[in-house]
Structure formats: C-alpha cells, structure tokens
Specification:
- The protein has about 120 residues and is mainly beta.
- About 0% of the residues lie in helices and about 50% in strands.
- The strands form 2 sheets. Strands 2, 4, 5, 6, 9, 10 and 11 form a 7-stranded mixed β-sheet that branches. The chain has a 4-stranded antiparallel β-sheet with strand order 1-3-8-7, with no helix packed on it.
- The termini are far apart.
- The mean pLDDT is about 95.
Length: about 120
C-alpha cells in the first residue's frame, strides 16, 4: 500500500504564499506521475496541477496558471502557491500513480491510484 501525506496548508490572507508538500513514507516518487487536486465544500474535485514521472513536463489548470508551481524530487512533491485568492480555498489533495499518464489525461482524477487525506487551505479576503 502507498500512503501519501500532505502538509503545509493553513489560514492566510489574500496575496500570501504557501507551499504544500506531499510525501510517502518508505518510498521514492521516482517513476511516479503526480498531481494536485482540490475540492471546496459542495463542489466537484478539480484538477490543479500535475508533473510527469521525470518532472520534465508540468500542467496547470487555467485558474492557477502563473501563480502556482508544481515541482518534485525523489522524496517529495510540492505545490508552491503564490498570490493566493479567496477562491483558492479548498482541501488540497496529493495524488500519484506509478508509470506514465498520457498528457491528455493528467487532469483526470481516475488516472491516479494513490491519494492523500488532504490539507486545508483557507484564504481570507
């Protein structure tokens, strides 16, 4: 089993930055496609960002492009969130799956086998 754990969420004012981290105890993320999703109360889970197995390619939702940056090393995956807005308020989930995901499918949550429990990000006006 793969257990992912997110950290770094919190309550911040609009315009502030946060960095989320995702780790898997006893494992390396080398060879895993990885992504971040978020879900606000009453809303569908939505794609935020993804990175290919080698970190060579990144994809972003239009709502965060230019503000958020996804990155990775062999131990953790990160989401740097700058210029946070109230509409960014959500539970953020780390997701991963071994192997490759077609570039056309990184946004699909059902492409990922493993998920964390989420970390709350709240952005006040």
């Amino acid at each position: 089993q793969v257990q992912l754990v997110e950290s770094g969420g919190g309550l911040v004012q609009a315009g502030v930055s946060l960095r989320l981290s995702c780790a898997a105890s006893g494992r390396t993320f080398s060879g895993y496609a990885m992504g971040w999703f978020r879900q606000a109360p009453g809303n569908e889970r939505e794609f935020v960002a993804a990175t290919s197995w080698d970190g060579g390619r990144t994809l972003y939702a239009d709502s965060v492009k230019g503000r958020f940056t996804i990155s990775r090393d062999n131990a953790k995956m990160y989401l740097q969130m700058n210029t946070l807005k109230p509409e960014d308020t959500a539970v953020y989930y780390c997701a991963a799956t071994p192997g490759y995901i077609s570039s056309s499918y990184y946004y699909r949550s059902d492409e990922y086998n493993y998920w964390g429990q989420g970390t709350q990000v709240t952005v006040s006006p």
